[in-house]
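Good morning C.,

I know you're traveling, so I'll keep this short. The sequence:
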Amino acid sequence: MKAITISSIMLATALLVTGCHKAENKDGMGPAQSAGKAIDDAGAKAAAESKEAAANANAAAQQAGENAKAAADRAGDKMQQAGAEVKQESHEAAQNVKEGAKDATAATGRGLERAGEKMQQAGK
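The tokens, ready to paste straight into the viewer:
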């Protein structure tokens, strides 16, 4: 419907511009020929603008896709780095727990040993 309306408007405009009288221009075209040429020229211009707009939209979509891929790659790299850091920190925490347990066991053993010595001394 829009194409029909635009074509009708272009035809009416071309007729108004060229007028309904015999051509006085150098190319010898009559009013109908001038109107047809004006419509053809307007159609060619619209087609060229549409192609250019489609090319621009395609380029923008391609750039957006590349930007999204780059962002996803960066996010993936950061997640891998964070995972490696968590793994290292977990390993260190486990080592600290082992050392803490070892120290606590040793301290408990020393305390029991002293308590045993005191009991022996008290029994003499």
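Safe travels,
E.
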